[in-house]
Design brief:
The protein is 73% helix and 0% strand. With 332 residues, the chain is mainly α. Helix 3 packs parallel to helix 5. The chain is built from 10 helices and no strands. The longest helix has 47 residues. The chain is elongated and about 100 Å long.
């Protein structure tokens, strides 16, 4: 199947530049930051009629510059790191089934993600009541660029989530066909790393939303859309690559234990050395299988997974605590 245009761009950058991830970040962040700086909206010397403070506006436009760059950097790194995983998985599929599990099977529908991003920005991301579009008003430029920033950021969010969720879905389909070897579970860690990378990308994006609180005021409205999109996305990005493999591991363990149980029932109950050795070996093997992990990730991956979950709440709690402490200090 033809490779979608956004993927072709990422592949070109990966082949053409020594540091493609950094190149993508700079190519996106610097022009956006320059646009908001040279138009003067990032350092406003006026206050929005709805009461926003200049510091909040600075944080918003910093977010508009940094978050798209961050997401595209994560996506570039994702594509680069998952190439070897997909190559390994495709080599394990029967030739007759390769077409059913093409890496970009449904990726040609990516324009729908762009449309969804625009609609989400227009309908849910933009506070139209706080914007002014009257010619000659000093807030016109600010209002136009706020709309541009919201639309651009949600287009990037939609595109990145579309492609990463698509790959997670394909990995899920691969996982259903994969033959599990209980004595080589480390070979399945690629599925766990894919889920971990998806979670890290989402967690980082949620943490960056705290830039909107540069004025040291925590407002739920600034975080609501990020939470509504980020939390379900993080859940899917973690579960899609690993769930089918997890089920295969559990099923394979059940099959092996069932076979061991049958062997134990059929084993001789004689007390001679050979019979006791065989029976003890079967009991030990059953216990080993029971204690094998059920997920395609080792302890290191699992501990990082748990750690990443707590990063956004801690970041937001830290921002709220800073606000409380400063208010208390200035009040005294």
């Amino acid at each position: 199947m033809p490779t979608p245009a956004p993927i072709q761009i990422i592949e070109y950058l990966t082949k053409s530049f020594r540091y493609p991830v950094l190149t993508v970040g700079c190519a996106v962040c610097i022009p956006l930051l320059a646009l908001y700086t040279f138009t003067g909206v990032i350092f406003p010397d006026y206050v929005n009629p709805q009461g926003e403070r200049p510091e909040e506006v600075i944080g918003i436009f910093l977010l508009f510059s940094i978050l798209p760059a961050y997401l595209l950097m994560c996506f570039t790194a994702w594509m680069k790191s998952s190439d070897s995983l997909f190559a390994s998985l495709e080599s394990q599929l029967p030739n007759s089934e390769e077409h059913l599990y093409s890496r970009f099977r449904w990726a040609r529908y990516w324009p729908l993600a762009v449309i969804w991003g625009i609609l989400f920005a227009v309908l849910a991301g933009i506070n139209w009541e706080s914007l002014i579009f009257e010619w000659g008003d000093p807030l016109l430029r600010l209002s136009v660029l706020l709309v541009f920033g919201q639309v651009s950021i949600w287009i990037v969010v939609s595109l990145v989530l579309f492609f990463v969720l698509h790959e997670g879905l394909i990995l899920s389909k691969y996982g259903k066909k994969l033959k599990v070897n209980l004595y080589d579970l480390d070979s399945l860690n690629g599925f766990g790393r894919a889920g971990l990378n998806g979670l890290l990308m989402t967690v980082g994006a949620l943490v960056l939303t705290s830039l909107q609180s540069l004025d040291l005021t925590i407002r739920w409205d600034n975080y609501a859309n990020g939470v509504y999109v980020g939390v379900p996305a993080a859940t899917l990005l973690v579960l899609l690559p690993i769930w089918s493999v997890h089920k295969n591991i559990v099923q394979e363990k059940a099959n092996v234990i069932d076979g061991i149980n049958r062997a134990i029932k059929g084993a001789s109950d004689s007390l001679d050395s050979e019979s006791l050795t065989r029976l003890n070996g079967l009991l030990i093997r059953r216990e080993q299988i029971h204690h094998m992990r059920n997920w395609p990730m080792d302890l290191s991956l699992f501990s990082r997974l748990v750690f990443y979950v707590f990063i956004p709440p801690l970041a937001w709690a830290g921002a709220a605590l800073t606000e409380v402490l400063l208010d208390s200090f200035l009040g005294t």
